[in-house]
Amino acid sequence: xxxxxxxxxxxxxxxxxxxxxxxxxxxxxxxxxxxxxxxxxxxxxxxxxxxxxxxxxxxxxxxxxxxxxxxxxxxxxxxxxxxxxxxxxxxxxxxxxxxxxxxxxxxxxxxxxxxxxxxxxxxxxxxxxxxxxxxxxx
Length: 138
What we know:
Blueprint: E1 2-14, E2 19-26, E3 31-32, E4 35-37, H1 44-56, E5 60-72, E6 78-89, E7 101-108, H2 109-115, H3 119-133
Parallel strand pairs: 1-6
Antiparallel strand pairs: 1-2, 1-4, 2-3, 2-7, 5-6
Helix pairs in contact: 2-3
């Protein structure tokens, strides 16, 4: 069995009236949250920051007090575990990593939730939104 580790974050920004979440329309056709493989010697936090920067060009302030993990099998005989944090964008200059990410989009919570392809990502986004906004039902 192959075990893979990835890290990423629910990236958000605050506007005057609401919180917007960054979603990635992936080149392979699904819609996801920023994440990627842990490289040798990297911490989870370093991986999350690097992957966000590579995929989106954003600098972020990572909040590791929020932590959500999902596991799934991307292919036979492999289990991938992904650790998500939350990260507030400290810049707004989006540039997608064209080899992996077809496009990037800022969306309000409900629209982002509907756009995500996988239930596991929806669950992470719901928990992150509750954490970020202070809702009690996440």
